[in-house]
Amino acid sequence: MAKMTLEQLRKLREEKKRDIERRETEGKEIRIIVGMGTCGIAAGARVAFDAILAAVERHGIGADVVIAQTGCMGLCHVEPTVEVIVPGMPDTIYGRVDAATATKIVDRHVVARALVNEHIYDRPAADIIRN
Amino acid sequence: MAYRQYMLVCGGTGCESGKSDEIYRNLLKEAEAQGVKDAVQIVKTGCFGFCEKGPIVKVLPEESFYVEVKPDDAKEIIAEQAVKGREVKRLLYDKSTRKSNNKIEDIEFYQKQFRIVLRNCGVINPENIEEYIARDGYAGLEKVLFQMKGEDVIAELKTAGLRGRGGAGFPTWLKWDLTRKAPGDVKYIICNADEGDPGAYMDRSTIEGDPHSVLEAMAIAGFAIGSNKGYVYIRAEYPLAIDRLKIAIAQAKEYGLLGDDILGSGFSFDVEIRLGAGAFVCGEETALMRSLEGNRGMPVPKPPFPAISGLWKKPTVINNVETLANIPVIITKGGEWFAKIGTEKSTGTKVFALTGKVNNSGLVEVPMGTTLREIIFDIGGGIKGGKKFKGVQTGGPSGGIIVEKDLDAPISYESLQALGSMMGSGGMIVMDEDDCVVDVSKFYMEFCVDESCGKCAPCRIGTNQMYDILDRITKGKGEEADLARLERIGKAMTKASLCMLGGSAANPTLSTIRHFRDEYLAHIRDHKCLTGKCKDLVTYSIDPSKCIGCTLCAKKCPVPCISGERKQPHVIDASRCVKCGECYAVCKFGAVVKN
Q1: Choosing among A14, A22, A123, which should be mutated to test the B contact, i.e. which has the most B CBs within 10 A?
Q2: Percent of chain B scored above 70 by pLDDT?
C-alpha cells in the first residue's frame, strides 16, 4: 500500500466498513438464520447462505441484517431451511431454499416486507417441543 | 466472497498466558483441515476485559461467548460451529440458559459497561490498520486536517470536558491550549504509557487491543498545538503492547497516516517509541521526560510546567494512554456528545482494572457517576467465596481504601478525593474480611520505599520511617503513639514532597487508620491480627476435644509439623509452624484454633 490520499482513505473505509459490519449485531433488528446441520448442508444450505449474503450485499442493507447459522431446525424433510425474523412481521421458517429462493426471500420478505408464500414451513407447534 | 462467520480470539496478555495464541493457531489449522477456511475468518483481537474467564473466544454473528477455552477445543469449535452451525454448549459462559438468552449484552459483566476507550478492544485485529479504519479510524484525524483549525480542536475538547485519566484529572484542553500558546517552533507530544500501579493494566490493554487510537490521537494533538514529533514512553515489561505499537506505527506510515504530508494536507507527524526500565517514578511527567532524554528519571520542581518547558526544554503536551484513546471519538462524534456521558464535572467514561477478591476480575469501562457498588457487585459479581467485603483500594499506592458505607458514592474525580482516595490511573483492588489493613498498608509502603527516587528528603526518609513503624506494628511491637507518628509523618510527606509519589505515598496508611483504627489497636494492644495475615501475631493449635484424628491437616501441612496417630487428636509443633493457615482452612471439624 502506497501512501494514501484523502479520497483513497475514504474509499478504503467504506469498503472495509461493509466487511466489519457483518461482525456486528448491535442495533440490527433483522435476523436471517440458516440451518446448517448435516442435513441442511447436504441439501445445499451453503449455496443458500451465500445467495442470501450476496442479495443482502446487493441491496446495501448489511448494516441492518444479521446473517447467522444454526444447527438443524428439525424440518429435515424440507432442508435447506431459513428462518427470517423481521420486526412487525411474523417469524417465518422457509423450507426447500435454493439459491433462487434465497434471493427471493431477501428481495420480497426482507426488503419488500411480503411473505414468500410457497416456501413457508413452520416449526413444530410449541406444545410438542420439550423444554 | 464474504465470510459467513467470524471467530474472535482474545490476544490480550492475560489470555495469551492462557495459551490463546495456540488456540488461535489451532483454529486456523482446523478451519483449513475441515475445509471451512474461506467461510470463517479467525481474528486475534485485543482484550475483551473479562479476564477472569479467559481465554475467550467469541463467534459472530451468532454471539456465542466461549470462556476458559483450551487449545484442544479448537477442533470441536470448528467441527460443530463452523461446519454444522451448532454451538459448543459446554464452553458457553452461561450453560444453564438457552442460546437466545445468552447474548453478550446479557452477561452481567457487560451490562453496565459503556465502551469508548475500549471501543475496538476485542472487536478488531489490532495488527491490521484496515480494521481500525473500518471502525471510523483516522476519521478524526481526517476531520481536523481538512475541516478544523488548531483552536477548533481545543474548543471541541473544552466542550467535551475531557480530563486527564492518569490520575489528577487536569483538563486536557487547557494543557493543549497552554502548549499551543507557548512560544517556540519545536514542540512535542508524549504519550505516557508508563503504567506502574500494582494491579493496573488499563493502558497496556488499550495499546494491545487498539494501538492506532493512541497514534491517531497523538497526530491530532500534534496538529492542534503545532508539533511534528511524538514519543510513546512505554515500559519495557509490556512486550506485547510494544510489538503491536511497532506494527501499528509501521502500518500508519505505510498508509501515509503518519509521516510527511499526511493525506496531502501538508501536515507532518512522526511517532517514536521509547522504552522505560520500569520505575514507578517515571510515570510522573517531569521524571518521565528526564528519562526520555536519556537521564536518570527523577522529578524536577514545577513550575515551569511541561507546557512551557518540557522535553528538551521545549513546550510539551504529555497525556496518558486512556486520555488519548478518547480523543478520536470526541472529534468524530463531537464534544457535546461526550459531555452528556458521565457527571457534570467528570465527563465521559473511566476504565478500571478490577482485581483482588472479586468474582469477575477484568477490565471494566463505565460512565463516570457509576457507583463503586455497581462495579464491584454487579459487574464484578461480588466477593469471591461469599466472603464479606472489607474495602476497595482505588488509585493504587497513591490512593486510599474505600469502605462499605461509601460504596454508593457516584465515581468522579471529586467524590473519590472527598473519600480520601483518588481516581488514579484506575487500579481497583477489592479486599475481603481475610485481608489485614495493616499488612496491606505495609505492602504499599514497601512499594513506595522501593520506588522512591531519593531526590527529596520527605519521600526518601518519610517512606522508610513509615514502613519501619508499620512493620513493627505487624510484629506486635508497636505502641499507641505510633498511630499519631504515622499521621504526623504522613501529613509532612503529603505537604513537602517534590512529586506526587511522595505526596500521596501516605494515603493508604492514613485512610486505613481513619477507617480501621480498631484493627491497628488490636495489633498494638492485644498483639492480635484477626485475619491471621500478620504471621508473627497468630498461632495455630488443635483443640483435642474436637479433633477426631482424620489426619487431613497433617497431610496438608507443608512443613510438616503436625503429628498424631489415626483417630487420635493431633498436635501442632508451634516452634516449626510457618503459619500458612492450611490446617485451619482444611479442617472440617473446627478443631484447628487460630489466635
Answers
A1: A22
A2: 97
Across the interface, do A13 and B136 touch by the CB < 8 Å criterion?
A: yes
ipTM score above 0.90: no
Do residues B66 and B58 lie in contact, with contact meaning Cβ atoms separated by under 8 Å? yes
Query: For B275, phi and psi rounded to 5 degrees?
Result: -95, 135
Residue A1: the pLDDT is 66
Residue A94 near residue A120 (C-beta atoms within 8 A): yes
Beta bridge partners of B542: B592
Taking alpha carbons only, the member of B138, B121, B176, B184 closest to residue B154 is B176
Domain A26-128 has CATH 3.40.30.10: yes
Q: Would you state the pLDDT for residue B102?
A: 47
pLDDT digits (tens, 9 = 90+) for B484-539: 999 999 999 999 999 999 999 999 999 999 999 999 999 999 999 988 889 888 88
Q: What are phi and psi of B37, to 5 degrees?
A: -65, -20
C-alpha cell at B26: 489451532
- Domains of chain B are 5-111 (3.40.30.10), 129-339 (3.40.50.11540), 349-432 (3.10.20.600), 437-525 (1.20.1440.230), 539-594 (3.30.70.20)
Is A5's CB within 8 Å of B264's CB?
A: yes
Tracing cell 475445509 back to the chain, one arrives at B35
Question: Residue B348 pLDDT > 90, yes or no?
Answer: yes
Contact criterion met (CB < 8 Å) for B263 and A4: yes
Look up residue A24 and give its three cell numbers: 456486528
| Number of residues that this document lists for chain B | 595
How many angstroms separate the CA atoms of B39 and A22, rounded? 13
Q: B316 with B289: CB under 8 angstroms?
A: yes
Place of cell 505505510: B254
Cβ-based contacts under 8 A for chains A and B: 98
Check residue B455 and give its pLDDT. Answer: 95
pLDDT tens digit sequence for A36-74 = 877 888 888 889 998 998 898 888 888 888 888 888 777
